[in-house]
Design goal:
The complex is a heterodimer of chains A (78) and B (117). With 78 residues, chain A is α+β, with helices and mostly antiparallel strands. Chain A has helices at 4-14, 46-56, 58-62, and strands spanning 19-24, 31-37, 68-74. Chain A has a single domain, classed as BolA-like (GMP Synthetase, Chain A, domain 3, 2-Layer Sandwich). A 3-stranded mixed beta sheet of chain A has the order 1-2-3. The mean pLDDT of chain A is 96. In chain B, strand 3 (74-77) and strand 4 (80-81) form a beta hairpin. Chain B has a single domain (2-105), classed as Glutaredoxin (3-Layer(aba) Sandwich). In chain B, strands 2-1-3-4 form a 4-stranded mixed beta sheet, with helices on one face. The chains are: A alpha+beta (78), B alpha+beta (117). The A-B interface holds A 31, 46-47, 50-51, 54, 58, 61, 68-72 and B 31-33, 68-71, 81-83, 86-87, 90.
Chain lengths: 78, 117
């Protein structure tokens, strides 16, 4: 299990401009749906955007704090 | 060993126009996202295969390496990697996926069993 602030901090470390919305899908703090808005996604395919996000959260994936994660990405409004 | 697994994966990808590596089987999915992917493709009505790799850690490691994608399920269409439903759903909404599937099955006699809206 992981809290929202920790997740947001991990994402922002790699994507400093990121606006992040986290939803805890099950109330157990390990199944999440995240919406990330960042201009770091510009020019990247959906696959690469998701790879980028998964890499920022890899430590929490590896040790099981995050069990399930659905990812949505958008560019920041310009 | 890793080479053998790699050939096995290549063979599976070549043999199935739509291939899902997931946790559990079509009849008994053991993960919410694998179930979601099965329901997703059931809706399209084209044949697809689900390969259960839940207990097969060496194969999961090779798959992750090949795709640079850490999680399951992993979907391949016509040999191309498409991630999971987070990637496929936007493609379905824009209509790209329908076209892609029609083209993927164009050379075969396979027709979808369900009429798409």
């Amino acid at each position: 299990m992981i809290d929202e602030a920790t997740m947001v901090a991990m994402i922002r470390q790699a994507l400093p401009d990121a606006v992040v919305r986290v939803r805890d899908l099950t109330g157990t703090m390990d199944h999440f749906d995240v919406l990330i808005r960042s201009n770091a996604f510009a020019g990247k395919s959906l696959l690469d955007r998701h790879r980028l996000v998964e890499k920022t959260l890899k430590p929490a994936r590896d040790d099981g704090r995050i069990h399930a994660l659905s990812i949505h990405t958008e560019l920041l409004e310009s | 060993m890793s080479d053998e697994i790699r050939s096995e994966i290549e063979r599976e990808i070549a043999d199935h126009t739509i291939l899902v590596y997931g946790k559990g089987t079509k009849d008994a999915p053991q993960c919410g996202f694998t179930l979601e992917t099965i329901q997703f493709f059931n809706h399209f009505g084209y044949p697809f295969e689900v390969v259960n790799v839940l207990e097969n850690m060496p194969k999961r490691a090779v798959l992750a390496e090949i795709t640079d994608w850490p999680t399951l399920p992993k979907v391949f269409i016509n040999g191309e990697f498409f991630g999971d439903t987070d990637i496929l759903e936007p493609l379905a909404r824009s209509g790209e996926l329908q076209t892609l599937l029609e083209n993927a099955f164009a050379g075969s006699n396979v027709k979808p069993t369900i009429q798409l809206r």
